[in-house]
From TrEMBL:
Repressor of the lactose catabolism operon. Galactose-6-phosphate is the inducer. SUPFAM superfamilies: NagB/RpiA/CoA transferase-like (SSF100950), Winged helix' DNA-binding domain (SSF46785). This is Lactose phosphotransferase system repressor. InterPro entries: Carb_Metab_HTH_regulators, DeoR-like_C, DeoR_HTH, NagB/RpiA_transferase-like, WH_DNA-bd_sf. GO terms for molecular function: DNA-binding transcription factor activity.
Length: 258
């Protein structure tokens, strides 16, 4: 193991113990420069082991973040049912914004035969689904590639979004809770999701039942009401009622109907 790998493992251990860690404190602890620590944090963030904050602090990721490849096979039928419902809302002539994520990629798959659509996306899997869809104008919102989630994010992505509006946005989520909104492993992801929501007339969060009411990470995106949560019938009645009480419109699809 290289010195940098050893140091990064220790950084994860320290952050796990304390909950957060400061760049300057880490630099003193390891007797390296702050720039070296920032590179370590960037690498650990990309691996889903830590969630960085603006200003140099980092919040610990409570659970390892699964890669998009690992998530593709989870709750397959539920995601497919949610995707079919979502795709059925889309009308010819609309402009759509599609997030990254396995469920949103399933929406893109359902839209492949659509006509007269404009679709912008930050997701590589969405691009792959729609690359040869002749009836859809596809726009890629460039930026920095986050390999773990196969998505683009950062200042370039945000700058492009500020100049665009959409009829509908379909957002993914690592988890969703009443009160806090969308939970993600990375603060840049939550910032981007909030911006995406502000640029669309109708907001849909696509999350199968196992993702509701969970807090696996410490970064959150708060969405402006009204917005729609589309889930499946494995979601508990209590958690659905909690979202409804907040003013969220909840759609429950039959996860076995896919």
């Amino acid at each position: 193991m290289t010195p940098s790998e050893t140091r990064r493992e220790e950084i994860v251990r320290l952050a796990t113990t304390a909950g957060t860690a400061n760049v300057e404190d880490l630099a003193i602890h390891f007797r390296v420069t702050a720039s070296t620590i920032r590179r370590d944090l960037a690498a650990l963030n990309a691996q889903g082991k830590l969630a960085r904050t603006y200003g140099g602090a980092l919040g610990l990721v409570a659970h390892p973040e699964a890669s998009l490849r690992e998530r593709m096979g989870e709750a397959y039928e539920e995601k497919r049912a949610i995707a079919r419902w979502a795709a059925a809302r889309v009308q010819p002539g609309e402009s759509l914004l599609l997030d990254a994520g396995s469920t949103v990629a399933a929406v893109a798959h359902e839209l492949r035969s659509a006509r007269d659509l404009r679709v912008a996306t930050v997701g590589l899997t969405v691009l792959q689904e729609l690359a040869d869809a002749k009836g859809i104008q596809v726009e890629c919102l460039g930026g920095r590639l986050r390999r773990l989630s196969q998505s683009f994010l950062g200042s370039l992505t945000e700058a492009a979004l500020e100049r665009m509006t959409f009829d509908r946005v379909f957002l993914s989520a690592d988890a969703v809770t009443p009160g806090n909104g969308i939970c993600e492993a990375d603060l840049e992801q939550t910032r981007l999701k909030e911006l995406m929501a502000r640029r669309a007339e109708k907001i849909y969060v696509l999350a199968h039942g196992a993702k509701l009411g969970k807090s696996p990470f410490h970064a959150w995106a708060r969405l402006p009401l009204p917005w729609n949560l589309v889930t499946d019938n494995s979601a508990s009645e209590d958690i659905v009622d909690a979202f409804v009480a907040e003013g969220v419109t909840v759609v429950v699809v039959d996860g076995l109907s896919a």
